[in-house]
Amino acid sequence: AAEIQSELTNVLVTEEQILAKLDEIAAQVAVDYEGKDLLLVGVLKGAVMVMADFSRALPVSAPMDWMAVSSYGAGTKSSGVVQIRKDLDTDLHDKHVLIVEDIIDSGLTLSWLLENFASRGAASIEVFALLRKPEAAKVVVDCKYVGFDIPNDFVVGYGLDYAENYRNLRDVAVLAPHVYS
Ligand code: PRP
Ligand code: MN
Ligand code: MG
Known about the structure:
InterPro entries: HGPRT, Hxn_phspho_trans, PRTase-like, PRTase_dom
CATH architecture: 3-Layer(aba) Sandwich
Bound molecules: 1-O-pyrophosphono-5-O-phosphono-alpha-D-ribofuranose, manganese (II) ion, magnesium ion
Number of domains: 1
Cofactor: Mg(2+)
Strand order of the largest sheet: 4-3-2-5-6-7
Largest sheet: 6 strands, mixed
Subcellular location: Cytoplasm
Distance between the termini: 20 Å
Structural class: alpha/beta
Helix content: 10-25%
Pathway: Purine metabolism; GMP biosynthesis via salvage pathway; GMP from guanine: step 1/1; Purine metabolism; IMP biosynthesis via salvage pathway; IMP from hypoxanthine: step 1/1
EC number: 2.4.2.8
Mean pLDDT: 94
């Protein structure tokens, strides 16, 4: 494992800030979905950390399922081509689906996913993204719950990777340009 500190320019969102925000959003989600058949859908692999902490911040039990898609591969730019690597196990019929994502960057992954889910008969489909980069949007995604709007820098940590590294950092940090240029 590489020495990490020299590869980051600054911490953008600390683990403490993330957990506080998750508590806030989880309380809101519990109210919004009271009496509804809520299904959490995490988008692998980036959403692993946020799903783990967000689901445990919920004051109610909610099943979770996972979809694995990838559009970035080993680069820093979205290819725009989204591939399903693992589909859901759950039938979405009559479910109130809340998609849990680590980040909305160009928006291509989520807009593709929302379109893919639209025909599966869900009662409702909403999105929770921990991070969003408004300046990077190529398509507008209707996202009901957003943790933090952040600048258009390449960020890693708390599930977010560069070429599969740095997902295990506790904070979200900006990757130093010398690492990928
Ligand atoms: C990343 C991130 C989001 C998506 C956001 O996933 O986790 O899912 O890109 O980018 P977009 O808004 O430009 O589509 P990635 O494709 O890198 O796969 P990963 O979750 O396995 O890292
Ligand atoms: Mn992802
Ligand atoms: Mg990635």
